[in-house]
Amino acid sequence: MRTRAAVLWEARTDWKVETIDLDPPRAGEVLVRIVAAGMCHSEDHHATGDVPFTAPMIGGHEGAGVVEETGPGVTSVAPGDHVVFSSLPSCGRCPSCSVGRHNLCDLVMHIGAGRQLSDHTARHHLGGEDLAINCFLGAFAEHTVVNEMSLIKVDSSLPLEKLCVLSCGVPTGWGSAVYAGEAKLGDDVAVVGVGGLGSAAVQGARNAGARRIFAIDPVEWKREKALGFGATHTAAGVAEAFDVIQDVTWGRMCDVVVLTMGVGRGGLMADVMRLAAKRGRVVVTNIHPADEIDVRLSMNDLIQMEKRIVGAIFGSVNARRDIPALIESYRDGRLDLDGMITREYPLDEINQGYRDLRAGRNIRGVLRMG
Q1: Where is each Enoyl reductase (ER) domain found (predicted)?
Q2: In this predicted model, what pLDDT tens digit does every residue of 112-161 receive, in sequence order?
Q3: Active-site residue set
Q4: In this structure, which topology does domain 2-167+336-368 adopt according to CATH?
Q5: Neighbouring C-beta atoms of residue 329, cutoff 10 Å
Q6: Distance, CA of 234 to CA of 227 (rounded, Å)
């Protein structure tokens, strides 16, 4: 069949919406008509050249849609089912999956290849050339073929244009506070950067019972939105936050610090570590440039105060457990997805959407298909 998709041909160029050829699903695969796709900052890291990718690539790793066709052997979904993508697949059988660490599934090691999980070949083509798909998904398209291991079936009464952000940004932010950060009742939590991931981290910390939540962002309207998500204090930058946290906590500082700004910088780590209390956890969940190897850090502060730096991919969540749980939180009002989605765009306006992201105009933009 033919469909349309946003393709990134090389780094430091715009996305180009193309009419592509899409093969039918093979064994274990599913054809999905996409209703909406979240515009995560991760795709912009590819566009800016911060993170390498297999080109040409169909972007998009946050998406939700309707199953149109299934390949042989598919048992978890059927035509007509509503589904949310998981940005990282899980096989359920490897050593990581067997202990519930689905975010570290062995399948993820192949994610940069941009081909199908089942046989590492392509289903998406243009002009005789194979197209890669980001995170085995390629959600910036009107249709895509994915493996059933990347799908979570959801209630058809729920709005897919809201649920699409549950593929990555929301569980990543939420889990970074709750799982990687181990935020608990009475903790003080700082979130550095309150865009899509940070807004979810604020809500995760609130639901975990945090006593005080400090939202740190240079954009004033995002700080104001963070108060609505559950933050108790705000600051425009890390230096200002240090003074605020020191005053409010009587110098004890924060039990958990979550780094969710759009682009990580190793040179900021020493200042960020000062926000953490004794034995405080600093969770690094945002993406840094792939070639960054230098980090500015006071090792004495790390050692003497027993502070901990924790890396987190996909918020350390188990997608099959946590995406349904987050949907229930959305149903009962504990998770505000509506407030996080600030603008919607047709597929043809994808580049405007990413210009808005870079300019700080969105918490999360969403592409609406068709």
Answers
A1: 12-367
A2: 778 898 888 999 999 999 999 999 999 999 999 999 999 999 999 999 99
A3: 40, 42, 45, 61, 168
A4: Quinone Oxidoreductase; Chain A, domain 1 (3.90.180)
A5: 19
A6: 8
